[in-house]
């Protein structure tokens, strides 16, 4: 009968142990209350991932811009760029912009 009595109170002995309380306090502190808590780390890791994605995007854009700069060192390329992007023209020329039906946005 004493074995069954001890089996019933194993949980009470476990909870009354001071090391268990210290461990529970430590885990609670590290998960919720500390400056470097688990939840803060999750938020910071998401921000890091977003910043790394932005870094990759901007590095690719820098490479594209560097290639464009190399191309624009040629005067013919400068003229082509100015005509295509900014619709610039020579004094003796006329520019016609052709819009198709699918290109325009309909106003409600």
Mean pLDDT: 83
Q: How far apart are the termini? A: 86 Å
Tally of contiguous helical segments: 5
How large a portion of the residues is in β-strands, by DSSP E? under 5%
Q: Quick one: biggest sheet? A: none
The helix content, as a percent range, equals over 70%
What structural category arises from helix and sheet content? mainly alpha
- What is the number of strand segments? 0
Form type:
rod-shaped
The SSE order reads: HHHHH
Q: Spans with pLDDT under 50 lasting ≥5 residues? A: none
Q: Radius of gyration in whole Å, from Cα?
A: 35 Å
How would you portray this structure in words?
The chain is an all-alpha fold. It is built from 5 helices and no strands. The chain has helices at 2-8, 10-16, 18-33, 38-71, 75-86. The radius of gyration is 35 Å and the shape is rod-shaped. The model has no long low-confidence stretch (mean pLDDT 83).
List keywords for this structure.
70% helix; 108 residues; single chain; rod-shaped; mainly alpha
Brief characterization of the structure:
With 108 residues, the chain is an all-alpha fold. 70% of the residues lie in helices and 0% in strands.
Question: How would the blueprint of this fold be written?
Answer:
Elements: H1 2-8, H2 10-16, H3 18-33, H4 38-71, H5 75-86
